[in-house]
Hints:
Layout lengths: L3 E11 L2 E10 L24 H10 L2 E7 L4 E10 L4 E9 L8 H13 L4 E3 L7 H5 L22
Parallel strand pairs: 5-6
Antiparallel strand pairs: 1-2, 2-3, 3-4, 4-5
Amino acid sequence: xxxxxxxxxxxxxxxxxxxxxxxxxxxxxxxxxxxxxxxxxxxxxxxxxxxxxxxxxxxxxxxxxxxxxxxxxxxxxxxxxxxxxxxxxxxxxxxxxxxxxxxxxxxxxxxxxxxxxxxxxxxxxxxxxxxxxxxxxxxxxxxxxxxxxxxxxxxxxx
Length: 158
């Protein structure tokens, strides 16, 4: 279901002055073009997906919430989930552009995604140990898991 979620305002400081940063949250991926996904996202990835691959990933996800900077319609954060729609959902990606981190955007994205997914038995995310406290304050609990990664395909199939 594509819906626009009520915008929020977050303070952003520039050179000691405080301005109001308008962030609009939406589930409507159709609003976004590859050029809106310049980020930079996927910090630290040796082979990050290009914006076209990123857009295809968003469009292929069952659930997406985007954080869009109202001033220039740039996507500054996103979260995705894949789900069976009955019992389980998995959060593969939560990304916020570095200059926008620490302002509650990531927390908003998780909360909004959990609302979008709806009440189901389980919502899982595989995260590094240092990120577990962030998810913990949103109600997710640490667990164990396994994974398979092919880093040659990290940027997507081309």
